[in-house]
Amino acid sequence: MNEEIKSEIIVELRKSRNVITCIFVLIAAWLAYNIIENWRGVEQCGNCWYDVRTELDRQQFPKALTAAKALVAAQPDYDYGRTELGFIYLAMDDLTNAEAQYTKAYELFPSKEHKEYLEAVQTRIATGGKVMAK
């Protein structure tokens, strides 16, 4: 091979390497963007049940209640939503509304768990709101 052909091959290989590098950088940037967006979607989902549970954990019951009511309004026949509302009302010591939500959850999905929640709040109402120790 003569030197001119070798030089041309080297130039073409360098061009190819630059193109491959650019493609790799674009793919890496695209992956980074999607990872960040997915992380934001989990952490800041807007008005979702994750937010309701977070506010409950922070004992921000009015905020949790507002968010949960909006979610239940969007899906009124979702038993989980009714149960969450019951938890919030119970945490706020609003036994009447807690009972109403647990009753609705049990009507929507008559599970053992829903029945236990309902019976527990009914027992508490019957004892004048006092917590019964086992």
List key phrases describing it.
rod-shaped; 134 residues; mainly alpha
| Shape estimate | rod-shaped
What is the number of beta strands?
0
Uncertain residue segments = none
Largest sheet: none
Q: What is the percentage of strand-forming residues? A: under 5%
**Structure classification:** mainly alpha
Helical content, roughly?
A: over 70%
Q: What's the end-to-end separation, in Å?
A: 93 Å
Summed over residues and divided by their number, the pLDDT gives a mean of 87
Question: What does this protein look like?
Answer:
The protein is mainly alpha-helical. It is 79% helix and 0% strand. It contains 6 helices and no strands. It has helices at residues 3-43, 49-57, 61-74, 79-91, 95-108, 112-126. It is rod-shaped and about 100 Å long.
Short description:
This protein is mainly alpha-helical and 134 residues long. It has six helices and no strands.
Secondary-structure map:
Layout: H1 3-43, H2 49-57, H3 61-74, H4 79-91, H5 95-108, H6 112-126
Helix pairs in contact: 2-3, 3-4, 4-5, 5-6
